[in-house]
Amino acid sequence: MSLIQGIHHYCIGLSYLCALLLELARLFWPGKGWRVAGLVFGAAGLFAHTAYLLFNQPSPAVPYGSLLLLAWVLALFYIYGTIHHAKQTWAVFVLPVVLGLIVASRVLFKTGPDSAAFDAAGWLTGDRFWASVHGVLILLTSVGVSVSFLASVMYLIQARRLRKKLAPVSALPMLSLERLETMNRRALNVAFPMLTVGLLVGTLLLPHGPSLGDNWLSVKVLSTAALWVVFLVLLYLRYGAHVPARRLALFSIAAFALLLVALVTAHPFAVGGAK
Q1: Which one of 45, 57, 95, 169 is CB 3.0 to 4.6 Å from 15, fit for a cystine?
Q2: The whole model's pTM is what?
Q3: Which CATH number covers residue 2?
Q4: How far apart (Å, rounded) are the C-alpha atoms in residues 32 and 39?
């Protein structure tokens, strides 16, 4: 079973990797064929990715499952952006993140009770329902943070290109600084309330008893709380202190790093056997 799961990971990853290589080739040898071929491989990867999630239903309560789900949402974001922003090198920035999440998911994958399939019907009742609400909110927050991270990276590269006054033909075709800053702001504005509610629900789900102190000091809880603090600082710097957009971009990248720490660590509470 583990070998079969691994093959699925490799098929998904290789499809996205081929799409990325074709997009990179387009930068050196411009032509419409590269983009079309890249989209074909990207669509094949998304199809395999979707099929894996539907048939195996990995639980979002385990690290490898949450990373794979986040990678799937970002893969949709890649397909949409590549078609909608046809003149920009969208895939060159999104696909490396998708590939990194898939590789991390494969590394964290393991058989046994912790990697059991997600029982959708069973998670819609009782405490499991609130655990599902918590998981969905954190997943949506993860998407927002990831979009903010991508916009921030592109912003820093575009700002440096303009500061160095590089010729347009020697630079990556990208969105304007204004549009990238708007993308970053909207992603953070949407993600922060979802993270706040998700944290509140997760706090109520923490088990009581002698282990409560250990649960509060777990890496996942501390990293998620730190992510919320970074969000709060980001909102203050943007709307209160009005700091330069470059500094906000750096904070957004730090928020993405904290998000990865939170996603790859196990939940301190177990609801129905999922950790």
Answers
A1: 45
A2: 0.81
A3: 1.20.120
A4: 11
